[in-house]
Here is the input.
Amino acid sequence: MWNDPIKSTPSIIQTDFGPFGQSLPGDGEAYCGPTSMVMGLYWLSANGFTQVAPVVYNGEDDPVAINLERVVAGLMRTSSESGSFVDGMTSGMADYLSACGIGPDLYNLTSTSNPDLAWLADQLAPNVSESPQTIVLANFAVGWYSVSQTTKGYMENNGGHVLAPLTMNLTGGTITINNAFPASFENVPNLPSSNPQTVQIAQMPNGWTLENLPLPSEDYSQVVTDALTGWGVYAVLWQGQAWAISPSALPSTSGYEPSTWTINQPKVINTNGGTLTVVAPISGLGGLHKYGEGTLLLTNTNQLIGHNTVGAGTLASTRTSGTPFGSFRVTVTNGGILELRSDGATVDVQIASGSLATFVIGSTGGALQLSGSGNYRVVIGGNDDGTLTNIVRNSGGTLVIVPGGGMAQLGLTQQVFVAGTGANLPIVMNGIVAPYILGEDDDAASSGKFLTYSPSEGFASAATVSSTDVSINDVSADAVYEVVDSQAVESGGVPQVAALEVNGGAITGGDASILVGSQASGDAAGLIMNGGSIATAILSFGAAEGLIYTNATGGSSQIAAAIEGSAGLTIFGPGTLTLSADSSGMLSGLIRVNGGTLIAGGTGGSATGAGEVLVSYAATLEVAGTVTGAVVVGESGTLFMNGGTVSGPVTIAATGTDSPAPGGILQGSGTISGTTSISGNIESGPQAGLITFTGETTMTGDASFYWRLQKLVDDADPGAGPGIYWNALQFNSPDTNLGTKNAPLWLFLDFRALDGDPDGGNAFWKKPHTWTLFTYAADAGYFWPAGENFSYQSGSFNTVFDNWVVSLQWKPAASPQSLPERWRANARARSR
Here is the structure.
């Protein structure tokens, strides 16, 4: 017999992970689905299924509990805005159970779109049976319904809610549950002590049409409580799922081995900022496509023969032999990290070792990391014909190799080889491989190093010529030159180096130039800025692509020279690089920001030249001066306006369509004078600010504005106003279109800078308030908003568009608002 579900299932509240729920996306407001499933997983673990959750639940501030919640939500494709849907919950739990070694052969899934008392009783029966054949992980969901005020005989739907069922009383017609949001059923606080709840299940009244449901109302069941009745709310049961798991999945079973996770199609995994540990062996025709922040950690064998992609975060393995990431192609992009881990044992593995398999450096770059100080021998690639390359670079791609023992051990105890001979291997010129492949040291700043390659040692640190031995005025053009002190280029001098590494040093020369690389078209010229500065008149890459790595030293690395080049720049590394000179007449081509922060400083011209700037995943372009070219902000990239101006067109990407990547981000204070198209997020940034748009501006698709109040003030307070204590927008163009009727501009309210939201009890929220959000030019366009978190127990927000000014208004409630009152307020905010 299993443990008592009521006593052994922890009560977890979806909005209590961290202060004000801030450990979860959207403060957990839409996380009822994953929270209900996590409660069930803890119950399974309490019954011996320890591979799915810790045995003991240590509260919502426990990092382990937060991690589990985030991982389950990521797998279920839970949105912080719209919550969970049945397809995502089904596939997400299948993936989670498979990762834990509980394959489809060890459970039976039963689901229904119309659960009732009998169905729930049948599913939960094994959990209280004296001789159970299975143990059941279950959930059911209700849709919130209320009588329409405009259409007779019609009930409107206001969303739904997922619950964790514990036990049934079929005779009494009741079910005992753990409710991730207890106040949704009863007039109780949202605290763990408000669970469990025992509620009545009854038939819905007949004669009603239910929005979004196909059957007559009397064919459905409902949850009945005094509070729901008093609120005029019907909680209609509209979904149920139950996984009946075999006891043979218990790790304590004699001869237990985790089931193989068979993957025959591309498998997208979003770890959602957590770590998913896969204990199952993996095999099949498919591959893993890792997205989202966090780590997918493989701990068993991997016989996948499909393409693997690390599209963000980390794909890691603890295997010390064989093919830890399968045998076919591996791509790292969006800063994704492919990581090998060892507890000290020697690692001898192959990556992308199958026939014709390659290691692909995606256009936005990534890393290969060897963690720990143990011995490594890694072989990359499946081509050994002497002709086909094993490391393939997509345009603009960058790869950083990170040895856990530091750069001193790369090529010695920690070796990374490339398979084959001849053209299968990296090309070495002037003692280094192409500078889009660099090493990263284990110092606190993650300093960069140029690499060489040999068949006997693999990749290793390249030899450099130090500025302490050779002056910059005497250095040869084939030298990899390392500047560790102050070097002054003589007047009119034009020294040239094969590659340049600045390690805290400074290069000056007011009328001098310095040339890096061959200057030839099709080549790549490498510059590493491990702190320090370059202040010559010109820094030239010629017709070659300039690749600049910046480490994370305190402050930023500085280039005060005008940059000359026709093939653009690729910026990468974890640090901050400031460009302060006017390069508008000398620098052209695409400027890629693959990582870290690029600051465009200086007001005398464009520090980024005349070309387009592409801001990639998790990278930032900070505009403190002027940028004249177009700016394209990719998924999860950031354009931070720090008082500067972008005069070219600006595009902010929408949320990923093929991945769960968030949209691009625009934040700060400054001016955008080019045509602007925003489908991503507009946020406050570190401080409140006002962004002014002087060109045509359109916000469409998933565009969202996150309003952050920094201090409890409003329009009426002296010294307050748009851009001072809250972020705001000003539109000076005669053509400004924010949202459409079918694709509104979403408005979200962010109170993280304050001591709680309006329900926190501060007297400020007992009075009405108004804040100016957007100011238009007269007769300038239209505004279609949809407010998301606009309603609270203490009152509601709404927007007013009057005289070409959009204001946010707060109206306190005379008494605490009931749940349906809050739903109706939010519904009004969404449909304005």
